[in-house]
Amino acid sequence: MSEITKFDAVAALIGENGSASCMDGNDITTFYYQGCEAPKSADIDAKQIELQAEWDSQEYARKRIQEYPDLAEQLDLLWHAIDTGTLEDKDHRNKFYSRLKQVKDDNPKG
Question: Residue ranges per domain, the chain?
C-alpha cells in the first residue's frame, strides 16, 4: 500500500510549470517553489485525496501484474495455442487463455 504524500500532491498541482523541493517530502511548511506560486493548502489536500483514491482504485491492476506469467512464458503459451489450433478455444485446452483468465478472475476490476 502506498500513501500519497503532500509532496506528491504539490508535484501534481504544479506540473511542468515550476518545481518544488522539500527536505522531508511531506511537510508543506518546508516546501521551496521555483518558477511557480505555492498552491493553497486546501488545493493540496484535495489533490492528495484525489491521487490516493486513484492509487487505491488500481489495486487490482497491481495485483494482476504480480500474478501474470512473465512475458516470455505468455508468448510460449500463445505459440502453443496457435500451434495446436486451440487459440480460439476458451476451455482448458488453451493454457494461454486459461492462465490469464484465472489471474483476471482472482483479481476482479472494481
Answer: 6-57, 62-106
On the CB side of 52, CA atoms within 13 Å amount to 13
The phi and psi torsions of 32 (rounded to 5 degrees) equal: -120, 125
Which amino acid is located at 73 in the chain? E
Tens of pLDDT, residue by residue over 40-76, are 889 989 999 999 999 999 999 999 999 999 999 999 9
Q: Grid coordinates 483514491 are at which residue?
A: 53
DSSP string, 31-57: -EEESSPPPPHHHHHHHHHHHHHHHHH
Closest C-alpha to 103, from 62, 58, 75:
62
Model pTM score:
0.65
Give the 3-state secondary structure percentages of the chain, helix then strand then coil, rounded to 5. Answer: 60, 5, 35
